[in-house]
Acyl-CoA dehydrogenase YdbM (Methylorubrum aminovorans), 378 residues
Amino acid sequence: MTALLETVRTLAEGFAATAGERDRSGAFPHAPIASLREAGLIGLAAPERLGGGGGGLVRAAQVVGAIGAGDPAVALVLAMTLLQHGLIHRDGTSWPRALADRVGREAVTNGALINALRVEPDLGTPARGGLPATIARRDGGDWRVTGRKIYSTGAPGLSYGLVFARTDEAEPRIGNWLVPMSSPGIRIEESWDHLGLRASGSHDVVFEETFVPGDHAVDLRRPEDWRRPDPLQQAWSCALLATLYDGVARAAQAWFRHFLHERVPGSLGAPLASLPRFHEAFGENERLLSINARLVASLAAETDAGAPPAPQEAGFVKLTVTENAIQAVQRVAELCGNAALSRNNPLERHLRDVLCARIHWPQGDAVRVAAGRAALGV
């Protein structure tokens, strides 16, 4: 574990050195992803019997957090792949075993990336309900998929898209189709031009009568059966997103430390690090980051022990950790003045990136509403 984390930190330092360039251009991080492949990190969560790292959520969270401190856009692409492998190889999965094994082996041997493509222009996030507009229709024993997915993280580098769609049956089922992204009838529209995580390649993906083999319909259910959150999925997703944004805050805190030691105002004649005001501010950030570490570690450890908490509790962790991260970065920005917002410094990028935490599901209002309804019994 120690050797793995040392490798990851070295990679993260290299990613950090070029993250600003990718942020400005919005270019997909092909070179960093290639470095992750070479280090065997794409297959980190694939089972050992397939040649993978056999890593659980504890290890995945540590890796994503460290990479997030270097370049969170790279970390997000990695996190989405690790999340899927954390789910598709578990006992009781709806996936055909041979198909899950194929995806796992390709992650190990080829560094194949996978992500769930769920969000649509009209539907928004499916977690809030509604039927997807993307249609899967029967073509003999196989399928044809047509639709548009937006915010498809990692789109330029994906080997597989796990496409959320509905059947064209009289009583539609909804679910996931595993679609090889090299299939004919797929195009990527480079629409991603956001405030933060600009290099994540979260573009639109359009499917036009895309052929999908029959056994690639990996999880079809009645619409009402999707209303119950999956504790394991929620735990992996919340832990990885939480640690990613915590990594951004840790990068901001490291920059703050350097700034306080190096900045020597003429009126003071000593570094800002000598002032009690900054001792308190830096210490408050340390408090928030310490809490974050314990929350993520607890959630990940319980999940690896086979007892993922209720989805509501995983949502609490994601919300608390990300809000702590946002507070920490905003505090640094407020105290550093103009230097914080200069594009010559990475802090303004950290500020933009960390705010993306509020957009990632589960969002704050959904966490609070679900908790309130459960507590009130309504």
Observations:
- The domain at 117-226 is CATH 2.40.110.10 (Butyryl-CoA Dehydrogenase, subunit A; domain 2).
- The chain has three domains: 2-111, 117-226, 231-376.
- The mean pLDDT is 96.
- The first strand starts at residue 113 and ends at 117.
